[in-house]
Specification:
The structure holds 2 protein chains of 2 kinds. By secondary structure, chain A is an all-beta fold. Helix content of chain A is 0%, strand content 49%. The chains are: A mainly beta, B mainly beta.
Amino acid sequence: NAGVTQTPKFQVLKTGQSMTLQCAQDMNHNSMYWYRQDPGMGLRLIYYSASEGTTDKGEVPNGYNVSRLNKREFSLRLESAAPSQTSVYFCASSEALAANYGYTFGSGTRLTVV
Amino acid sequence: GNSVTQMEGPVTLSEEAFLTINCTYTATGYPSLFWYVQYPGEGLQLLLKATKADDKGSNKGFEATYRKETTSFHLEKGSVQVSDSAVYFCALSGDSNYQLIWGAGTKLIIKP
């Protein structure tokens, strides 16, 4: 029962380094999302993909890029990491682009930028 | 704009106590309301939802009623267990209907 798998689970970057967070789901969901979770702020949407081949900006897209590689995979790239990007990142998927379907989340990537 | 306010945690209770976690919201239109739970080291899971006023969502002994008159969606459970220790997030569907607006989360600690 894999669901949504995120890698890596932990990462420490130096300012200016780049990295890609990987996400894969095995539920045949059409829509996928990247969120960041910061203390006292709930979750904020970075980017989403309504379906394979499409991506759109969310609430806080600056400093990030995404790729919907296929129906299963949705990656998040930090081109030049900044300390403000220290956060816990969650990937999620849903059957379709509607909150009522309910989201399935991965277990998160804890990123520290020093 | 739309927003969700949850009671601050942590909330610490003894096993078998009654639980209430408050959630109030500000929204235009008729949003759907959700409670998600995050167990230690895991991602968030949908706990329950309600899609219109006066609806009651329920799951695993938890309940919440969509109260439009008080703009609230409080989470309740009659008798909590140690295994209920987690962070609970209230959320509502935004204007776009796909985007969820999240509360800050409430950490619940249940002591045996």
